[in-house]
Automatic annotation (TrEMBL):
It comes from Paenibacillus radicis. The keyword NADP does not apply. It comes from the Bacteria. This is Cobalt ABC transporter permease. It is a multi-pass membrane protein. Pfam families: CbiQ. Its main location: membrane. One of its GO terms (cellular component) is plasma membrane. The chain crosses the membrane at residues 20-37, 43-59, 66-85, 121-138, 247-266.
Amino acid sequence: MKVQMLSYKRLDSPIHRLAGSTKLIFFALWSVVSMITYDTRSLLAMFLFSLIMFALSKVKFRDYSFVLYLILFFFLLNHIAIFLFSPHEGVKIYGTTHELFHIIGWYSVTLEQLFYQFNIMLKYLTVVPIALLFILTTDPSEFAASLNRIGVNYKISYAVALAMRYIPDIQRDYQNISFSAQARGIDTSRKEKLFKRLKNVVSILLPLTLSSVERIGVVSAAMELRGFGRHKRRTWYNAKSFTARDYAAFAVILIVMAVSITLTVSNGSRFYNPFV
């Protein structure tokens, strides 16, 4: 674990310069649109746009690669489960059957099922990049200010910000404990066999948990001594005001929503059907 995963890094990019409130609202509306629609054209356009946003952010692949691989693994399991439990869902949705080949029993591969699961894949590929981008380009303190700005209680907002700040701290503690364990002969590197390695990693979790609990106690005591939570409102040092680029981002997401709704209405349903 040589790099900090899913931690904010201050960079000079158009995405980083957006206000936290803008990115939060954009992400929320983007997620709603991508989850509601099954229009392939809309999802493909959103996916390509999310890739462009990632390129503009200047975020390096190593900063989120591990989490991305983990998401893709569960994404693969989800696809397998969909086919195992409902291999003809696409046929029910699109109303036609174009069988490619039969496997066994009621399991057969159809164009409709492949197209249906392709759309599900697009949904993941549309939401995941924006979610990662939001986490990687938003300062935790500014994120807390953004939550408070849209009506979330500042205590909850601050708790979320602390959770985001703990991510790199926990990674650093894990790395230090891992090095200490390796010095005592407990190897967690790739040189060890997989099951032995997993067993050694589990042995690190207890001291990692205890160190995390201790840090929570220290932070809680410090906040209490400073009178946190005494007043109903608070100000934020890292809060940003909206600028022209923030309003441009709002315009983009509203256009995306309008186009998606238009395509859905023209289809007559949430699903784009190329088989009719």
